[in-house]
Amino acid sequence: MVDSPATAVERADVVVVGARCAGSATAATLAGAGRDVVVLDAAAFPSDTLSTHLLWPAGLAELQRLDALAAVEALGAPRLTTAFAQGAGYGVGSAFPAVDGIDYAMCVRRTGLDAALVRTAVAAGADVRPRCRVTSVVWDGNRCAGVRYLDSAGRVVEIRAALVVGADGRRSTIARAVGAEQPFLTVPSGRDCYFAYWRDTADAARHIAAQWREGADLGTAFPCDDGLVLSLVQPPAVAGGARGPGAAERRYAEALARIPDLTERLRGCARVGRVRSATGISSYFRRSAGSGWALPGDSGHFKDPVTAQGIRDALHYGRTLAESVVEVLDDPRALDAALTEWERRRITECREIFHWTNRLARGEAMRPLEIELYRTAVDDPELAEITTGIFSRTRRPAELYTPARALRLAGSALRHQSTPAVLADLARELRDATGEWRTTRTTLRGTVPRSAAPFPPRATLTTAGPGEHHA
Questions:
Q1: Where on the phi/psi map is residue 308: left (φ > 0), alpha (ψ -120 to 50), or beta?
Q2: Signal peptide: which range, if any (predicted)?
Q3: How many other β-carbons are positioned within 10 Å of the β-carbon of residue 11?
Q4: What are the DSSP E strand ranges found in 171-329?
Q5: Is residue 460 one of the residues assigned to a domain?
Q6: What is the pLDDT of residues 99-132, one digit of tens each?
């Protein structure tokens, strides 16, 4: 875009594109530290976005660090104090591990959650501007130096800033503008995702976050605000995502019918609204930092919703991005070094849960070792505690399959199940572990592969609108 007399030019320390989880966390932290922050979003708030919005204790702890937890709790979602998981007929209940004193989960619809986060950013001093659509980034040589956008009146405005933060979701305009849209690691999901809200019954157990595995299907029931329960199903993916009129309704109903205990949980509930869908999902890492720009949230890293990690990571890495750069925004060389280190830290911290998520997202029937894990966990509270801790990010996946525990599970599986099936599963487990180790040591070693380094384009890019999908 060529400057014209009609183009207004402003200056700020940081411009954040996207005002939802990652964007508000970044903005609130920087503004609270005294930095001049402008936040742009094409939407107005309150407004919804495609998301299944379960917050484990670690996610609620992030809200607490932002001083947003009280406002989110006021939305009325119940505290979920029990995690229940059932697979192959074995049901396991456990408490949630405490994170910063928070030992419960919550399922809060995004309309209220995001509006509360925007209010938090504004209260911290950020200048949040809704209905503003970013059209391009501004370059100073090879350095990102700001953005141009259309304001709510259709005027072209340019903001120059030391840092441009693209917190604008999976279809990130900023990622595309800086040449980072193509991930350097992509793992397609084996599941499609369909969800709907139901009006819960008066006698429902609204303190339980529940998940069921039945064959290759996975389903959940998470009580949320306004007396509703969010029920999600993730059947195996089908080619083309089963698009077309009525496809989402049909696939949702078919999956529910295959999970009888979830159907029973919803007995007496009345569905509210339409079935929503997310198909063709892939987990990925993108190049997430460069000279004068960064991509927290889904814009830089995304995991399948099967493990419900998106909101926590958006809040956490938005906040830590801000903490990493707040003191060095006036020194370009120090700023770039801080951005590089922040990106490295996210890769190293997320790679294990990335592998774990991709396993659960395969869309396959439960394997012998998985079945044995559920069977054993019924009488072994430590297993249930570790598993819940993995989802809450207080325990590591490696703690579940230690060599000693894996041997015990394999021995038990051989007593209860088909020997050839167990041996085949053990062989596959070894291949999977080897493949994950190799990926960790190469693609996810903590530095972005040189081939993933983007070269800033000079053409103006017009956004198709921010997209966000958290779980």
A1: left
A2: none
A3: 13
A4: 185-188, 193-199, 208-214, 217-223, 228-233, 270-278, 282-285, 289-290, 293-294, 301-302
A5: no
A6: 999 999 999 999 999 999 999 999 999 999 999 9
**d(C-alpha 258, C-alpha 260), whole Å:** 6
Find the CATH number of the domain harbouring 123: 3.50.50.60
Cβ atoms of 392 and 97 within 8 Å: the answer is yes
Q: Which two tokens stand for residue 195?
A: 């969800």
Give yes or no: residues 71 and 122 share one domain.
yes
pLDDT band at 450 (very low <50, low <70, confident <90, very high): low
pTM of the model: 0.93
The Cα 20–Cα 165 span in angstroms is 12
The region, left, alpha or beta by phi > 0 then psi within -120 to 50, assigned to residue 125 is left
72 and 135 fall within a common domain: yes
Q: Which two tokens stand for residue 450?
A: 């040189």
Asked if 285 and 183 touch (Cβ cutoff 8 Å), the reply is yes
**CA torsion sign, 364 to 367 to 371 to 376?**
negative
Which helix (H) or strand (E) covers residue 23, if one does?
Answer: helix 21-32
Express each pLDDT in 20-35 by its tens digit: 999 999 999 999 999 9
Give the CA-trace dihedral at 377, 224, 315, 184, to 10 degrees: 70
Confidence of residue 457 (pLDDT cuts 50, 70, 90): low
